[in-house]
From TrEMBL:
It comes from the Eukaryota. The lineage of its organism: Eukaryota, Metazoa, Ecdysozoa, Arthropoda, Crustacea. Pathway: Amino-acid biosynthesis; beta-alanine biosynthesis. It catalyses: 3-(carbamoylamino)-2-methylpropanoate + H2O + 2 H(+) = (R)-3-amino-2-methylpropanoate + NH4(+) + CO2; 3-(carbamoylamino)propanoate + H2O + 2 H(+) = beta-alanine + NH4(+) + CO2. This is Beta-ureidopropionase. It comes from Penaeus vannamei (Whiteleg shrimp).
Length: 385
C-alpha cells in the first residue's frame, strides 16, 4: 500500500467537498498558496519524460523602501533509472540523463536555484553494508563527472545547482563523505557541505561508509540569496537547523532519502518547524521508489533478511518562515516542484514574531558548555518526601 498511495493532496481533492477543501488546505498548509503558471514547453517535457511539475508562490508584504527579493527555487525527486545490478557507469549515466531532462524543465520555469536529492547519482545502497560495488559511485567533488555535468547545466541555464553526491576525498586518504556540492550559476564550484549527523538506525547503516561531516554549518552567498544544506538525518536535530540560521541562511535545503515505515510521520513536520523557528525557507526533498539489491541484508532487529528497505515516499515540499508550506509532490512519481519566494518574508517574520531576537543564545551556550562536562549534574530539584 505504501508504494501505491499517490499523495494526501490527491486524496483530499477526490474526497473532500469543494466548499470545505479550501478550509482544509488553510489548516493543513497555513494558507492556500497561489499557483504559478508552468510554461507549455516545460509541461510538454514533463509529459514526454513522465514526471510531474507543480508550481507555487510564497509572497511577502510589499514594502516602501525595500523592493521584493524574488527567487525561484526548484527541487527534484526521482527514482533510480537502471536496476541496481546494471554496470555502475550505466546506472550513473542514466541518472545524469534523467536529471538533465528535469533540470531543463526547471530552467523553462525560470528556476534560479535547484537542489537534487541525497546521493542522487546512485541507489541508496548504504543499507547493504557492502563496499563493492557501491563505493565505485564515489566521486571527486571538484572535478568528478557529476560536478562537470552540473557545471555545464549551471552555465547553460544561469542556475545555482546543489548536487548531493557520495564524495571521494582523494586528498585525505581516499575517505568517503556524504556531500552536497554547490555550483554557482557561472559554473564555479562555490564549495561543499558534508552531512553533519549520520544515522545508525534500522537499515540506515551509513557509518559503514562515512562518518560525521567536518564542514560545520556553511552558508553560501549566491547571486540569488544565501543558501545552506542540511543533509537528510540532520533534519532530526534542531540545533543543526538553528546554526544555519545563526550563520545567515535564507533558504536551507534538506536533500534526503527516507522510507515510509521509518520517518513519514515526521516528514511534514520537521522542515516546516525549522522554517518557523529560524525565520528562513526550507526545502524538504525525498527520493521515490523501491530499490532492490542482489544480496539480502538484515536490520539487526530480529526480522527476516530482505533485499530492499521499503518505499521512498517522495512528498517533497517547501516551507516558509510564516508557517505556510506548499503541497507535497507525489509519493510515487518523479517530480519537479517550483516555488517562487520573496526572501523579504524572512526579515518580515523576524520583525513580527521576534523569534531570533528572543532566542537567548547566551543562555543555551552556557548551559550546553556545562552539560558536556564529565562532572555535570543536571539542575534537578527533588522532592524530599
Amino acid at each position: 500500500m505504501a508504494g501505491q498511495f499517490a499523495s494526501v493532496e490527491e486524496c483530499l481533492e477526490k474526497n473532500v467537498p469543494e466548499q470545505e477543501l479550501k478550509e482544509v488546505k488553510r489548516i493543513l498548509y497555513g494558507k492556500e498558496l497561489p499557483t504559478i503558471t508552468i510554461p507549455e514547453s516545460a509541461e510538454k517535457l514533463a509529459v514526454q519524460h513522465s514526471f510531474d511539475i507543480q508550481g507555487y508562490a510564497i509572497p511577502a508584504a510589499k514594502e516602501e523602501l525595500t523592493p521584493p527579493r524574488i527567487v525561484r527555487v526548484g527541487v527534484i525527486q526521482n527514482a533510480i533509472v537502471k536496476e541496481t545490478t546494471a554496470p555502475i557507469a550505466e546506472q550513473r549515466a542514466a541518472l545524469h540523463a534523467r536529471i538533465s531532462q528535469m533540470t531543463e524543465a526547471a530552467a523553462l520555469c525560470g528556476v534560479n536555484i535547484i537542489c537534487f536529492q541525497e546521493a542522487w547519482t546512485m541507489p541508496f545502497a548504504f543499507c547493504t553494508r557492502e563496499k563493492q560495488p557501491w563505493c565505485e559511485f564515489a566521486e571527486n567533488p571538484d572535478n568528478g563527472p557529476t560536478t562537470q555535468l552540473c557545471q555545464e547545466l549551471a552555465r547553460k541555464f544561469n542556475m545555482v545547482i546543489v548536487s548531493p553526491i557520495l564524495e571521494r576525498d582523494e586528498i585525505h586518504g581516499d575517505t568517503l563523505w556524504n556531500t552536497a556540492v554547490v555550483i554557482s550559476n557561472t559554473g564555479y564550484v562555490l564549495g561543499k557541505s558534508r552531512k553533519n549527523h549520520i544515522p545508525r538506525v534500522g537499515d540506515f547503516n551509513e557509518s559503514t561508509y562515512y562518518m560525521e561531516g567536518d564542514t560545520g554549518h556553511t552558508v553560501f552567498q549566491t547571486q540569488f540569496g544565501r543558501i545552506a544544506i542540511n543533509i537528510c538525518y540532520g533534519r532530526h536535530h534542531p540545533q543543526n537547523w538553528m546554526m544555519y540560521g545563526v550563520n545567515g541562511a535564507e533558504i536551507v535545503f534538506n536533500p534526503s532519502a527516507t522510507v515510509g515505515g521509518l520517518s513519514e510521520p515526521m516528514w511534514g513536520i520537521e522542515a516546516r518547524n525549522a522554517a518557523i523557528a529560524n525565520s528562513y525557507f526550507t526545502c524538504a526533498i525525498n527520493r521515490v521508489g523501491t530499490e532492490s539489491f542482489p544480496n539480502e541484508f538484515t536490520s539487526a532487529d530480529g526480522k527476516p533478511a530482505h533485499k530492499d528497505f521499503g518505499h521512498f515516499y517522495g512528498s517533497s515540499y517547501v516551507a516558509a518562515p510564516d508557517g505556510s508550506r506548499t503541497p507535497g509532490l507525489s509519493r510515487i512519481r518523479d517530480g519537479l516542484l517550483v516555488t517562487e519566494m520573496d526572501l523579504n518574508l524572512c526579515r518580515q517574520v523576524k520583525d513580527r514574531w521576534g523569534f531570533r531576537m528572543t532566542q537567548r543564545l547566551d543562555l543555551y551556550a552556557s548551559s550546553l558548555a556545562a552539560a558536556i562536562q564529565p562532572d555535570y549534574q543536571p539542575p534537578v530539584i527533588k522532592d524530599v518526601c
